[in-house]
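Checked the freezer inventory, then went back to the computational side. Two predictions to log before the end of the day. The first one is the construct we discussed on Monday; recording sequence and tokens without edits.
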Amino acid sequence: MNKTNTYEQIIIEELEKYANDWNKNDTPVRTQAIIDTKGKHYQLVRLGWKTDSDYVHYCVFHFDIIDGKVWIQENRTDILIAEHLVKNGINKQDIVLGLLPPHVRKDTEYAAA
């Protein structure tokens, strides 16, 4: 299995784990993993009616694989998702914190781009 396929599998497993865990809660708001293996885009979204008049729909995590690197495009949690990806086998130098401005990325322990 090549690096991109390995990274894709790690991302999918991580998103599915969160979706399964969060959907065990007794809440009308559901969590869905959205997987685009052809385009190399991966998201975890929350959606549903919290109350009769409060509908939610938002992206929790968004990853892309671009040129063999995992780009973290969104993280709306306090989970250090990059660390989870490293623990599961993704090289730090293959993770780009795309949600940070480009001039700040060079100061992280991850790839600048």
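The second is the one RB wanted added to the comparison set:
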Amino acid sequence: MTFLKTVDSKFFHKEIPYKPMGKYVHFLTVRVTESYPLFQTDGELNKARVRAGVVDATVIDRLSMFKRKQSTPERLVGRELLRNYGLMTAEECEYNVDFAMNNPDCIIYGFAIGDSGSEKSKVVVDTAFSIAPFDESHETFTLNAPYESGTMSRKGEVTSRINQQDHIRPQVFFPSIVTLKDPTEASFLYVFNNILRTRHYGAQTTRTGRVRNELIGVVFADGEIVSNLRWTQAIYDQMKAKGSLHSPDPLNEDDVISAAKTGIEALMSDEFIVRTSFIGEAFKEMLGEVKTLAGNEETMKAILQQAMKESKDYFAKHIEKPKKAAAKAG
């Protein structure tokens, strides 16, 4: 079944290949914080000391959004949809506990079950970095846990349940390239939809962590493209050259998106891989078509069913069959 009219079928495999076949699709995403998320390890916000731009050699601290902070929420959204449409149950496949190994989440995003087997992820996500420096991108909050009366005291005693925590500010931008290796049309749409739908990242996702994903383009290629860090540095250079860095004010989203498009196109011109880029105006038609497909119950279910069929076929051929053969040999 074919779903897309805006994308040539030559970019997709007819089935999920077992070995790498050199087809890549890169989703160019700018993640925008819309509340006060937490991307932290050991109680502290993750940050890295890096060069400000490709041209600007100033060294600054930047917030870091590690790869699992990005991929885990997105794959959980996909798993939720599979359950919602009756294609998977919580009992047959439990995330990080008991993987079923035969559904789109397991086959596309990978799994590891000790001696029982593993599947390498076909989705590659690397650490993303904030465009603005660390000092302009976070603030410290004092947190408390009041009693039912709404106060911090009970029976004349004041609680000590007060703590401080650094949070990332709203309107902090993390350019991030999500790469899918050897896509079929269904796996492409599955990953695309997960990125579009995911709204919460980081710790305490039930109360904060609101993040919006702005996709600015898709690149089909026969290899990997630039890193998140280099793209972020190129955006910083573009914005500095245009005078759109107004410290300590938050960055203007229109300026960021414009610089992101210009920056990635400039970086891609230096690449030596075969590629077809859908960026800016060329991307609008594709994005509109994908949103239309994902917003219709019948087509969304059909996409998920196709992704499930491909995953089960892959499981039967490359995971289940070898395991049975090994068991017989033993």
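For RB: Helices lie at 67-84, 104-109, 185-197, 228-241, 253-268, 281-294, 297-329. The longest helix spans residues 297-329. Let me know if you want it refolded.
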